Amino acid sequence: MSGLKIGVIGATGMVGRQYLQILEASPLEVGQLRLYASARSVGSRMTYAGESLAVEELTVEACRGLDIAFFTVSTELACQYAPQVAEHGTLVIDDSSAFRMDPDVPLVVPEVNPDAARSHKGIIAGPNCSTAQMVVVLQPLQQAAGLKRVVVDTYQAASGAGKAAMDELIDHSRRFLAGERPAPENHPQSLAFNIFPHIDSFRDDGYTKEEWKMLVETRKIMDLPDLRLSATCVRVPVAVGHSEALHIEFERPMSAREAREVLERAPGIVVVDDPLNREYPQPIEAAGLDPVYVGRIRDDVSNPGGIALWVVADNVRKGAALNAVQIAELLYPSAVPAQTEGRATAAMTAR
Amino acid sequence: MSGLKIGVIGATGMVGRQYLQILEASPLEVGQLRLYASARSVGSRMTYAGESLAVEELTVEACRGLDIAFFTVSTELACQYAPQVAEHGTLVIDDSSAFRMDPDVPLVVPEVNPDAARSHKGIIAGPNCSTAQMVVVLQPLQQAAGLKRVVVDTYQAASGAGKAAMDELIDHSRRFLAGERPAPENHPQSLAFNIFPHIDSFRDDGYTKEEWKMLVETRKIMDLPDLRLSATCVRVPVAVGHSEALHIEFERPMSAREAREVLERAPGIVVVDDPLNREYPQPIEAAGLDPVYVGRIRDDVSNPGGIALWVVADNVRKGAALNAVQIAELLYPSAVPAQTEGRATAAMTAR
């Protein structure tokens, strides 16, 4: 049998299902696909490329022989299983926060630091979703003018907290419209017609861990250990699609015009910036698509030589499953049939 | 008849109705209240303090004899009527953008520049709603440490665009949940489970007029003609309550601890900042209330000596009707019965 032996660990979850969709559309040559979940999902079946596949129980033994295991499970489960699976020679690509800051694990966004992926020791991590889409935009600007400081405020979709949280937004919205005020179960507050600046838990310094991740993960991915960045992470009543307002200061002056040219040439980005025709990125339009969308690019009126802009991407795709599959495409180019243009390349040129 | 003769111009609109509620709760001694609207609303009746009042057609003649006219109409109508009404000796307090940047018209937020109100020549303007709640927070910080630069990203409620826009959010959300994708009529895009960085129209420099107002109105109200400020204004699917993420740079270093102490003492503000107990300002909790709520106060990790924080207020109240009534309370203290604590004072001490 030719092609890669691939496993999706956590296949039955929201992001797991996205892996199946994205692998199906990927130029990666998938020889065998195996699906893993917890014991209670064993026996259920999922469709991949027209074929019905049984879900297996996750054990280290059951993962033996895989070339690649895409982990999309909790941090706890990733910590428990990923090292053992990697030890048997399988490349683990993990989208949890378990290994991101481990100095032995590369933290990779293919548009930004593809070379880091090649130095892996069995495990590669993908970043937090709000970080992933931001660094795709920051990297070409860093190369052009050197980043000095970034201020970012986010508008994050319910799906960033998982399927139950996304379903709760829909359910609570319906009940809110019927006059009810249901109590939250999967969010810290009800998200129906409300927003709150509370994603992940709070640190002693008043930042949330989500805000902190945007700082430390960005520093690691971009290899800028001294980058200055401050974030406010906010949940908004949107199902899919994270948005971010960025205000960027540079070492060398950057104009909005230059930034637009740089971003238009950059991998993975589509510039949507024609506000007079009401064209700017919106989550409802980015959902289900691969690129990172950038618009509202303008000279920062408060900081000559700086710029402000607006970034939107599908947090379930670029923020998780797509990024992980792009890492695999990067490391297994021989499994990307030569006659077709690979997704990694394609996504990078933002077809 | 004792007490003030007060008119509400545009009484039948969403903000007009708020004026009635706020006047009813105000310590201002209202001797006579008259309600004005366009010809098509004439004959309708509204209830004030248990009394049914007829709505009159707006004409300059019909406003004769008023002590105060609260204008809450379009910029066009304000331009047409306010100067003539003021010429007959009525104090016009206008919440449109018609006169805000007119050098002969004070732009007033009572917590910030009460003295400016006293130099009026017949017309006083109130600021844009997103500016009003921000300057209440910036003013005590300016006094404590001197503002150098402000970055602000907003999360603005549908009601900021008027009642039809708020109703459209509810209607579109209902239809979205039923599988429809209705086209927007009162917003530039559908707001159901979506957000967009487009409030008011676009300027040539890429900023929206809403974003520009936050800069120039803040400079005027705070009398800081060189203040550096950059805003991204974003509409979110919330009915009432604007939220703002602020990142503030100072002339002299300011710590989060000091900022919290300053803000706890400041007029009009309630600090809600106990994130470990899930307490931070949220629009759904601020709606219908007077104070400007501040939380998430923290040292800006990207800028030593700077701070980041989160501000929420009812945009229809502090952003419009409440601010205007507070201006009247400021100028007519004799009409605020001495034995009760006036709302202006009360709101300023954030009871």
Which tags fit this structure?
homodimer; 10 helices; alpha/beta; seven-stranded mixed beta sheet; globular; six-stranded mixed beta sheet; disordered C terminus; 351 residues
Short description:
The structure is a homodimer of 351-residue chains. Helices cover 31% and strands 22% of the residues of chain A.
Report on the structure:
The structure is a homodimer of 351-residue chains. In chain A, helix 1 (14-25) crosses helix 9 (317-331) and helix 4 packs across helix 9. With 351 residues, chain A is of the alpha/beta class. The first copy, chain A, is built from ten helices and 13 strands. Chain A has a seven-stranded mixed sheet with strand order 3-4-2-1-5-6-7, sandwiched between helices. The first copy, chain A, has a six-stranded mixed sheet with strand order 9-8-10-13-12-11. Chain A is globular and about 60 Å long. Residues 339-351 of chain A have low confidence and may be disordered. The two termini of chain A are 32 Å apart. The first copy, chain A, has helices spanning 14-25, 75-87, 114-117, 129-145, 163-177, 209-222, 256-265, 283-286, 317-331, 343-348; strands at 4-9, 30-37, 45-48, 51-57, 68-71, 91-94, 123-125, 147-155, 228-232, 242-250, 269-271, 292-299, 307-313. Chains A and B meet through strand 8, helix 5, strand 9, strand 10 and strand 12 of A and strand 8, helix 5, strand 9, strand 10 and strand 12 of B.
Task: Tell me the layout of helices and strands.
The structure is a homodimer of 351-residue chains.
Chain A: E1 4-9, H1 14-25, E2 30-37, E3 45-48, E4 51-57, E5 68-71, H2 75-87, E6 91-94, H3 114-117, E7 123-125, H4 129-145, E8 147-155, H5 163-177, H6 209-222, E9 228-232, E10 242-250, H7 256-265, E11 269-271, H8 283-286, E12 292-299, E13 307-313, H9 317-331, H10 343-348
Helix pairs in contact in A: 1-9, 4-6, 4-9
